[in-house]
């Protein structure tokens, strides 16, 4: 186990690296050449133009104004300055609520830490059991933790009482936060401008009909069963292959631009490439001509595919977006069952157009349940068999173990400074590498499960990732680490002993998790703000691909808050904080530093950098809340297990009501708040309908909705005109009113009054 | 452990008692004097009149026609003769589907038994491990069970394969049955005549409004938010105290009749009673005068209370029955959320008027969740601390134990015949006594939980009762029984060993459960058909209270299928059957006999006797299905546990996919069928609306619905006229069209064309 010195060295190192990242960020961000890396959001909004257009050549690239260097920490107060309503307006509700999770961490843990240091630390410190027992090696940290209490000590009552206080405080904060987020969501939905998804319902599993096409069948069904409300519908094409072709063409076009640029710089020599695999072998040809020909071929293929998609009925999926005359009609259709067979005519709120995950719209009901079974089994194996490599590597990360296995390393390892360095960094980094690979695999699994919206995919992946982190990072670190210390007598223990065993080893793992928080949390967050990867890629693109200002906008990658990746990881800190609050309160300051830093950084990022792909109106909150409750219950059960090994069995019975009350609290919150995230109340729909009518009585809704749910590859092409089941075809296309799909606040408004100021990525497909 | 002889004796005894009951029934049912006990349903339908009206005095009471005695088993084919559609028409869908559960038992277990006897019994029998091992006492039954296989035997593969076959067969039958029941329910709902609950939604938690009364508030809310569909509403009064008074008056009236009858027989002497507790002490008064005065007082109190209920706004509950112009409108309102606060304006389908549990309509949301928490905790304690007495009594029921504790009884016990008798009866009866007390307590708990319909109460109570039976009867019998055989080494074992320990002792408890099935199942069902309790009560009432033919109808207690009481108990047989199918196939014939007999008896009872209080349209089926799946999974886990103790660990891994597949099967069925039991599809509503309009275009729906949801104590009183928010008050009251509330098929039709032929119990409240 690491000693206080180890922790000190590790903390020093991590603080150094974090400060290094922050300094680098502070310098880099004020260089004009990096402006598009650190402020892409403002470019997308159109309120910031390149600072490079003015001044000398030198000042176009490097900031020579020394006064800005002095104020290099300015971004921190700036990040905090924007008030929340403006933040919602600017970055969307999803992002604004997401940063509230970090704030929630502070709200929970600052009072808990104060109380723990005021009550539990003195209780532990003055107990002095460890000092009295001879032959036991212990750290100063252990003296501050629950380990310092002797078996059967009366002082455990202080911990039990604190456990109650912490639970009630956490529940209080959680309840309050759920209420606030619910209010924010409802206000957000009520204040939104008109959006196509408010009037639209996604219908899946349209049953086949021998006499009618899918389109006719949908129209007849809804014209009959929602007689007074049905307006129009948009059928869904299987354009997966087509969008593959479009993607491929885009890549080739990038290469073409690259070679053209190269040729322009050196007109004497035409660039050549080999046509084989990765340009390594094959025939040597002229690169520009080759790519031009390839693109031409692809354009032809694309045209054919486009024609096939529209004319061939096999390309029509048994799904449709059905629009209603009123929001009330749509709310009714989305919340009710349509026919007596619940596996057909499945209706749900249509996701925002940009939130739709098109590839999954056509999966039949039975296949869906088979897919879910397969993914569940695969996920089980992934979760539990992934533990093996972690266990091996972590056991090596214990220096005494390394010494045993490789005794010749002993003289190197036992140099004090090196020991501390390895001890401090190694276990955290081992975990980190595993974790980077994972979310992509889990996202692929969720896609196989067949969810129809990106936001849904994010939420489901986050759940999987959380389970994985819980089993492998949390439980894996606790049990495996101690398994090597307790030698073998652990393997043959039985299932009900697990809370005891974990609980018992929890205090021993405190230093490990402190290191983990510093490496993963502190340094990780500081690296986040630096955006090293985006910086490099932008400059590469800028050097080779950019010819016009428009290209430069394309080269900019604002990135987005990857909910499925970041939320489960941050939940781990809640888990650690709640578990260690009673056991080793020394861990809490580390957590608090993490949450403060992360709050600052993410607030800065959502203001200046990230551009969300979709806006779900904080639909993820019930999941966040539930996982916090899980963390709470786990902390209670582990404390129970720990105390029951301390010969304090009688007093531990006093802890039993806690998990019961926590579960009950979860159900109360679920009943009280969750419907606001799942359903859309009729009263609100009626209010919005009334306002809409008063506000814009002449609105042609059919015209407004036309083309809103056309597959992205058909956007900006007039093909969908043939497609739309609409008699008013003389009118001009409405799609040009759409704003950039990359731009959160603009796109989420999507109202008829906002002109088409930006061109999104989908609109850039050149006319064929 | 009981030997084959014990089982034989026990079987003989139980068959004798069952046959005795059946013979008694065969004789009693053809006596005219008992006609109303054994055929009350036909009286309620009005198609049977008393056979006592014709013939001599003697033949009025005793059946002298010897030919009917010869055909005394006639009722059995008669019970099977009625085809299912007619049965549904006659007894309601609930009853018709309920008897299908017994048929389902036969469908599952007859093929399983055939296969088990063809494959597993020979495999077990020829193994001969028990014969070879010396010093082991065993029974012939054990030679047929899995115990006869040696540890690590290759023959376990046969059992594993059979476990797969049985699981797939069970799932196949379950799926098919769910499908059939769903179709029956949908057809039943589609063919129903017009009923008030089809147009009505129950609204709870109407928020208080400072300016409006509850009634105005409800009207305004629905007139705005369901503009095109809202028709009218009926507010709910807190008439719990009033109905208490009415009940009390009814009891006093019965006593009055009793004393008047007594006086009429012996006019010389006026009956006297004491006014104190239970008539044991206090002043001696004239019984008739006393009761007349008491009733008069009560009438006055009732009148005052009635006035208070109507005039005092505090008696108005924040709940209402809201009716819509179309079934489509009602279906929409019932399935959607009304406002952004999900704890107010809660809507759900209104139960049938006679299915409403009035006392629970006014519980606010937060109180509801507190109540549920309290009941859950109370239920937990009830379930787990109830085990202690069972354990004690059952350990005594083991004869060797009794001998040890009370050695002086040894000579008596060791008489072979007596030993068999005690062994056969005792354990079953001990359990039985416990079980009789219980359902009432559980029903009270469910009432505290705040469900609003009788059918909901039944379902929730059934779930509790099932859990109780599972823990206490099944697990309790298995573990506690063997705990005394395995002495102490069981208590200190850990939680993950439980499947192993239970699995291991399962084969040893086979004879106990065979006895249990015979006592509880065979004799119990035979006693059911005899209706001893109803017979006695009817004759007592007949002797003392009946003056007119009308009184006699009141004295008749048809009883009803108590779903909450009978279904969980019958689930126990499914559990036993599935658990022992692989382990001890000898148990299966006992189960099959039980299901056959029960099917016969219950089909007879629902045709001739029972009158359901309500008709839920087989809404209980998802619960039945789920409990069967639970039984299946339990059987798989226990087999896993058993095999893992038999040194066949490697082959047991092959069993692991079974529970996973079973759980998956549950979710598939849930998704495929359950919505039909929870929601009402809009398409079906639209079809019914269209038919209704075509069929009866001039229907005054407002008039039809008026008074349908008036509290029973106001029925037949014109008070509700003041209450109904209705402008068309000139029209005559419609309530007289209501049929008897005691009568299932009539009441479930509830259509305007059926005249008021019967007078229900609620309509008998004398005018005040």
Mind sketching the topology for me?
The structure is a homodimer of 768-residue chains.
Chain A: H1 4-29, H2 35-38, H3 40-45, H4 57-61, H5 66-70, H6 75-81, H7 84-91, H8 93-125, H9 129-132, H10 140-144, H11 156-191, E1 200-204, H12 214-225, E2 230-237, H13 240-265, E3 272-274, E4 284-286, H14 287-311, E5 316-324, H15 327-335, E6 346-349, H16 365-385, H17 387-397, H18 399-405, H19 410-413, H20 416-449, H21 454-485, H22 498-505, H23 510-530, H24 532-544, H25 549-555, H26 563-583, H27 588-608, H28 621-644, H29 649-652, H30 657-673, H31 675-678, H32 682-695, H33 701-705, H34 719-723, H35 744-749
Antiparallel strand pairs in A: 1-5, 1-6, 2-5, 3-4
Which residues of chain A form runs of ≥5 with pLDDT under 50? Answer: 481-492, 717-768
- Structural class assignment of chain A: mainly alpha
How much helicity do the residues of chain A have?
Answer: 55-70%
Q: Report the β-strand fraction of chain A as a percent range.
A: under 5%
Shape summary of chain A: globular
Counting DSSP E segments of at least 2 residues, the number of strands of chain A comes to 6
What is the terminal separation of chain A in angstroms? 66 Å
> What's the multimeric state?
homodimer
Number of helices of chain A: 35
- Output mean pLDDT of chain A: 77
The radius of gyration of chain A is: 29 Å
Biggest interface: chains and residue counts?
A-B, 47 and 46 residues
Name the strands of the widest sheet of chain A in spatial order: 2-5-1-6
The main β sheet of chain A shows up as:
4 strands, antiparallel
């Amino acid at each position: 186990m690491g000693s206080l010195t180890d922790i000190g060295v590790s903390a020093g190192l991590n603080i150094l690296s974090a400060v290094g990242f922050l300094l680098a960020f502070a310098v880099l961000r004020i260089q004009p050449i990096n402006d598009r890396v650190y402020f892409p959001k403002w470019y997308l909004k159109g309120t910031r133009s390149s600072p490079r257009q003015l001044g000398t050549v030198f000042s176009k690239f490097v900031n020579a104004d020394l006064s800005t260097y002095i104020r290099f920490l300015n971004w921190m107060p700036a990040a905090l300055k924007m008030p929340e309503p403006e933040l919602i307006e600017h970055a969307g509700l999803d992002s604004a609520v997401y940063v509230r999770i970090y704030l929630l961490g502070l709200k929970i843990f600052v009072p808990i830490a104060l109380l723990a240091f005021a009550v539990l630390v003195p209780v532990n410190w003055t107990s002095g059991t460890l000092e009295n027992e001879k032959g036991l090696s212990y750290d100063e940290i252990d003296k501050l933790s629950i380990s310092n209490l002797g078996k059967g000590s009366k002082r455990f009552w202080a911990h039990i009482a604190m456990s109650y206080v912490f639970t009630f405080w956490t529940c209080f904060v959680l309840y309050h936060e759920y209420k606030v987020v619910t209010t924010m969501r409802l206000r957000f939905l009520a204040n939104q401008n008109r959006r196509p998804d408010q009037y639209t319902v996604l219908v899946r599993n349209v049953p086949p009909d021998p006499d009618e096409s899918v389109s006719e069948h949908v129209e007849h069904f809804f014209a009959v069963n929602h007689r007074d409300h049905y307006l129009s519908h948009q059928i869904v094409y299987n354009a997966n292959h087509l969008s593959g072709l479009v993607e491929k063409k885009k890549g080739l076009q990038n290469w073409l631009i690259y070679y053209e640029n190269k040729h322009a710089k050196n007109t004497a020599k035409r660039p050549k490439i080999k046509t084989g695999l990765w340009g390594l072998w094959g025939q040597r040809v002229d690169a520009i001509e080759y790519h031009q020909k390839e693109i031409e071929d692809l354009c032809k293929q694309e045209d054919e595919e486009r024609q096939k998609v529209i004319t061939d009925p096999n390309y029509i999926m048994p799904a449709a977006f059905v629009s209603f005359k009123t929001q009330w009609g749509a709310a009714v259709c989305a919340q009710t069952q349509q026919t007596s067979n619940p596996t057909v005519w499945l209706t749900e709120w249509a996701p925002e157009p940009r939130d739709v995950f098109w590839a999954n719209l056509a999966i039949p009901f039975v296949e869906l349940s088979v897919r879910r079974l397969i993914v569940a089994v695969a996920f089980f194996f992934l979760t539990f068999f992934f533990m093996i490599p972690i266990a091996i590597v972590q056991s090596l990360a214990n220096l005494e173990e390394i010494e045993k296995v490789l005794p010749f390393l002993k003289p190197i390892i036992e140099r004090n400074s090196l020991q501390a360095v390895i001890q401090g960094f190694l276990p955290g980094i081992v975990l980190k590498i595993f974790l980077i690979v994972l979310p992509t695999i889990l996202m692929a699994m969720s896609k196989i499960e067949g969810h129809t919206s990106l936001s849904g995919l994010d939420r489901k992946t986050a759940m999987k990732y959380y389970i994985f982190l819980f089993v492998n990072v949390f439980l894996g670190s606790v049990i495996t680490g101690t398994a090597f210390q307790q030698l073998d007598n652990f393997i043959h223990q039985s299932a009900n002993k697990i809370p005891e065993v974990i609980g018992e080893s929890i205090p021993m793992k405190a230093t490990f998790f402190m290191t983990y928080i510093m490496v993963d949390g502190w340094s990780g967050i500081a690296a986040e703000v630096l955006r090293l990867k985006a910086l490099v890629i932008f400059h590469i693109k800028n050097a080779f691909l950019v010819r016009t200002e428009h290209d430069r906008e394309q080269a900019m990658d604002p990135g987005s808050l990857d909910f499925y990746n970041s939320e489960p990881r941050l939940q781990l800190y809640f888990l650690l904080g709640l578990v260690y609050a009673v056991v080793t309160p020394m861990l809490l300051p580390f957590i608090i530093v993490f949450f403060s830093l992360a709050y600052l950084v993410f607030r800065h990022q959502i203001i200046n950098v990230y551009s969300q792909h979709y806006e779900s109106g904080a639909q993820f909150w019930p999941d966040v809340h539930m996982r916090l409750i899980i963390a709470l219950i786990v902390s209670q059960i582990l404390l129970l297990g720990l105390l029951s090994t301390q010969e304090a069995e009688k007093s531990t019975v006093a802890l039993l009501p806690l998990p019961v009350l926590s579960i009950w609290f979860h159900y109360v919150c679920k009943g009280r708040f969750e419907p606001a995230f799942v359903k859309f109340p009729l009263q609100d729909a009626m209010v919005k309908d009334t306002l809409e009518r008063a506000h814009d009585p002449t609105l042609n809704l059919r015209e407004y909705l036309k083309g809103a749910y056309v597959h992205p590859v058909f956007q900006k092409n007039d093909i969908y005109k043939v497609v739309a089941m609409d008699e008013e075809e003389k009118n001009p296309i409405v799609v040009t009113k759409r704003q950039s799909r990359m731009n959160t606040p603009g796109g989420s408004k999507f109202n008829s009054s906002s002109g088409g100021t930006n061109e999104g990525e989908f609109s850039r497909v050149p006319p064929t």
